[in-house]
Amino acid sequence: MTKRTAGDIDTHVLTAAAKLFREHGVAGASVRAIADAAGVFPGSVTYRYPTKEALVVALMQRAVEDISVRVFDAIEVSSDPVERLRLAMRVHLRTLLDGDDAVFVLLFDWQRLSPESRAALAQERRRYESIWDGLIYAAAASGQLVEGLDLSLVRKFVFGAANSVAFWYQAGGPRTPEEIADAFSALIGLGALSERSRPRPSVEAYEQLGALRPHTTRNQGGNDVE
Amino acid sequence: MTKRTAGDIDTHVLTAAAKLFREHGVAGASVRAIADAAGVFPGSVTYRYPTKEALVVALMQRAVEDISVRVFDAIEVSSDPVERLRLAMRVHLRTLLDGDDAVFVLLFDWQRLSPESRAALAQERRRYESIWDGLIYAAAASGQLVEGLDLSLVRKFVFGAANSVAFWYQAGGPRTPEEIADAFSALIGLGALSERSRPRPSVEAYEQLGALRPHTTRNQGGNDVE
DNA sequence: CCCATCCTTGTACACTTGAACAAGGAACAC
DNA sequence: GTGTTCCTTGTTCAAGTGTACAAGGATGGG
User: Fold this and answer.
1) Dihedral sign, CA of A216, A119, B177, B87?
2) Across the A/B interface, how many CB contacts are shorter than 8 Å?
């Protein structure tokens, strides 16, 4: 075994923590187990992260920064908003499904952080969501989306559908994350109803079904919980 | 305080457990805390559920039975498959968002059960998923869905989008669960792209984007993880 | 009324938890 | 080489964990 630098150990600890947090939940994975999995002693973990929550926050911070950079880079290659959304979905899913488990922990244990920790992460997290909001807003502004859609609801819908893949995806399955992302993009964009069973003009159907923005003007982003 | 029957206490314990499990995770909520919240002594919880996991399983069992019955009843009022899907989504969301938190725990802590416990629940859970599979299959058979869609993927998509609402929904917010369900139904059915930016004939677009079934014939349901 | 059954009570136990800490390197600047 | 800083080591501690259990009601059938 080669000697490890401090940065290496940090990475090992965070990676091991992400894996165990995902498998057993944050509360269900002990600092000792994380230290074991990372090949260090419990005290070393405590030294780097004075509390368990600090470890969780560091993990989430790294995760959100990582996925933000990836998505931001990936969407640069196109200028078409809808295509950029497809690319974003691809990278988002690839990172969620194929990276270490930090993004999973970020998405699903976010709500259980203390208010202070949530605040420490809120800015970065909001920034990531803004990438998506921006993409959807641009798609709407370019006229490529049905008019009057509640865009904040669309973001939640897209985001939720994408993230839920983490619950059933298995590496080595019949589809790559990119294939799933493309399939979901197609479904979200085009809908599942066949031509002949689609009402026309379609705007009425959306209206009837409440997918449109309420009459009162709302601000763009829509606020998530916290 | 009126006297309580055994059944009452059971309900109290399960309800309190669901709430705490949802808030802190299964591992993060102690049996003592649950007993406190239910107004009984820890020993009483142990008497009814010899182990914590037995409590979790009982909770999930009740949740899946409850939501199965509700959805099954709700879809009876229509015979149109697409309309039945909309009704199912409504009841699913209402139960997930407005019931006790047992359904939430069922959906999101399922993967962390021991294999034995998962097996004990697998049948009921599969039955619930079969309701959805059946609805989607019927919609496809009636020609109301785009031809060749990978139906197991559609179910995961629909299900995932719906369940993700639990992460941001807040009771008393601007939309009821039914409104959200209708909006999501519209998006899933019709898609978000405006008429003029929709390629024709649309089947090609789906094909290109990989939402269609692979050429090898696949069985209907598709298997979830475990 | 008696008794058997069911359930609760309160306590106890063995163990794990997050965190703290003294002691001891290792690495590096000078 | 020396001194200092950084980090790891191993242990310790109090608190909390799931579970077990003896003792004591309550309840209801006869």
Assistant:
1) positive
2) 187
